[in-house]
Specification:
binds adenosine-5'-triphosphate; 513 residues; 3 domains; BirA Bifunctional Protein, domain 2
Length: 513
């Protein structure tokens, strides 16, 4: 646990030191759970967004994008169920006066049992060596089975009480499990209450005519209300999808864990409209496709797992999360939800406008079912960033900090370094920058000894360093150094574009899907 916390602290300080993420309004001591993306962060975020957009929109003939407004007519949120049902169960500790999400307290309790399972597995793996079969071990070992049974029982009781809105039972569960305030150890809890997560605001100048609005808590509704507009103007045939990336806002209570849970964050969502009855197939297909997208980035198949929901949201008939191994354990990164026809039907009812599709093949009207894929861009950023940050022991006994970002996502693809700041080397280096910048984000760096510049670029996540030396003036060749292998090669300046392109072009990465 302590190791995990240390790793997480390193992620936070590295993100700041290398210009990725800053606390919002830091000079005023910050605003809790709100963050700003800095000069490198904004590029990484944009590259992740583009990687998603290319995979989802550009590569699918039947998926198109929109960019709906953050502010929507307030009835939207009545229809979607967010006014009545977008709540988190909260519990206060009477001694510490701290507020927690009751379900998260129980889930964290289960995560601790899960850590015990991991320990047993690690112990057994050591004992059995190469002959170790993890799957067999976890399905037969008595202790592990006992732990798993306990987790299952606790989570299924939690799911049932939340489903039945039996908040008294959620509190009873917390007490029975002996869960204490993580900060103080106190078990003096209040009752569990529901708390709506939407941020309210007002539209209009005068107090009596102003209209109460909400900042959208998810981007999906902007897609639903535009369903027919897009279908008609794009002449879309079912099955088809509408994709969107954009800001969403939630007044989160548990606002720890850096950019994992923010009050203002960005979602990348796609709503796929299908014929009623086919939703299960599409749901399975999108689960698979989305996992493949993640795996294409090469961040380790062991770092992902599916978690099927026991407690379904009010709109869903099936739902699963793709969980990622963050520095604080496996947590939700993306949700895939079979949303039925709940949203379109609700908007039909509340707006009085028909939101149906005429199927020419079947010669009938119907309200399409929807399968949604929804991923938090900031969470994806954290997954990529934390997974890439590594301390490496080098042969010469020193260590280096290296941010092994997938090259396709790296903010800067190459840094061009003149060996010294004189003898015409900066001019040649600048020329290379001016040439490459048409195709790639590149930077120029002439300060400090070249070894230090290499380390600086390693830590910032730049996949290539290109060094111009005195020989370059004669032979038009440079040294290209690879971030991950530290291998250095002498290549012609005219080859640079090709070499860089091979490692950073989106096609090569997405083709791994
Ligand atoms: P959680 O259970 O962690 O609160 P959720 O199930 O409420 O998440 P969804 O409503 O399914 O999340 O939203 C889809 C995606 O949006 C999530 O998978 C996550 O990546 C992202 N997301 C949701 N809430 C936040 C937040 N407060 N900060 C950053 N990303 C978020």
């Amino acid at each position: 646990m302590a190791k995990q916390e240390d790793q997480f602290k390193k992620v936070l300080s590295h993100a700041k030191e290398y210009g990725y993420v800053f606390q919002s309004s830091e000079i005023y001591d910050g605003l809790s759970a709100v963050y700003d993306y800095a000069q490198n962060g904004v590029e990484l975020k944009k590259n992740i967004r583009d990687y998603w957009w290319k995979a989802m929109v550009q590569m699918h003939e039947n998926i198109v994008g929109i960019d709906a407004a953050i502010l929507m007519h307030p009835t939207t949120w009545k229809a979607s169920g967010h006014v009545d049902a977008f709540n988190d169960p909260l519990i206060d500790n009477k001694d510490s006066k701290k507020r927690y999400r009751a379900d998260v307290l129980v889930e964290d309790y289960c995560a601790k049992i899960e850590a015990k399972i991991d320990k047993e597995v690690a112990k057994a793996a050591k004992r059995f060596g190469a002959a170790f079969n993890k799957e067999e071990f976890v399905s037969t070992n008595g202790r592990v089975l006992g732990y798993q049974e306990k987790i299952d029982a606790v989570l299924s009781r939690l799911a049932k009480s939340l489903e039945n809105e039996d908040l008294a039972d959620v509190k009873a569960l917390i007490e029975e499990l002996g869960i204490s305030d993580p900060l103080t150890g106190s078990k003096n809890w209040t009752e569990v209450k529901q708390f709506n997560l939407m941020f309210g605001t007002k539209l209009g100048a005068s107090a009596d005519t102003a209209m109460d609005l909400y900042l959208r808590p998810e981007t999906a509704q902007g897609i639903f209300v535009n369903f027919l507009n897009v279908q008609k103007t794009g002449r879309m045939k079912i099955p088809f999808g509408i994709a969107q990336t954009g800001k969403a806002f939630r007044n989160e209570i548990v606002a720890r864990q850096f950019i994992f849970r923010m009050r203002e964050f960005e979602q990348m969502e796609m709503q796929f409209f299908v014929k009623p009855g086919t939703q299960k197939e599409w749901y399975e297909q999108w689960k698979e496709t989305r996992l493949k997208w993640h795996l294409s980035l090469g961040m380790g198949a062991d770092n992902y797992r599916f978690h099927d929901h026991e407690k379904l949201a009010h709109y869903a008939d099936a739902a699963a999360d793709i969980e990622f191994k963050f520095p604080f354990g496996f947590k939700e990164l993306e949700g895939i939800h079979s949303r039925t026809d709940f949203d379109l039907k609700a908007h039909e009812e509340f707006s009085g406008k028909k939101l149906q599709y005429f199927d020419h093949e079947d010669n009938q009207n119907y309200t399409p079912y929807v399968v949604e894929t929804s991923i938090g861009l900031d969470r994806m950023f954290l997954a990529v960033f934390s997974n890439s940050l590594q301390e490496e022991a080098l042969e010469n006994g020193t260590t280096r900090t290296v941010l092994k970002l997938p090259a396709v996502l790296a903010p800067t693809k190459a840094a061009i370094l003149p060996l010294v700041k004189k003898d015409g080397l900066p001019e040649v280096a600048r020329k290379i920058v001016d040439d490459l910048k048409w195709d790639f984000a590149v930077s120029y760096d002439e300060k400090d000894a070249v070894g230090r510049r290499y380390r600086r670029q390693d830590a910032a996540g730049t996949p290539f360093c290109i060094t111009v030396d005195h020989d370059t003036l004669e032979d038009h060749m440079v040294t290209i150094r690879h971030r991950d292998t530290m291998e250095q090669k002498r290549v012609a300046i005219s080859e640079l574009r090709n070499i860089i392109n091979q490692e950073v072009n989106v096609k090569a990465w997405l083709q791994k899907m």
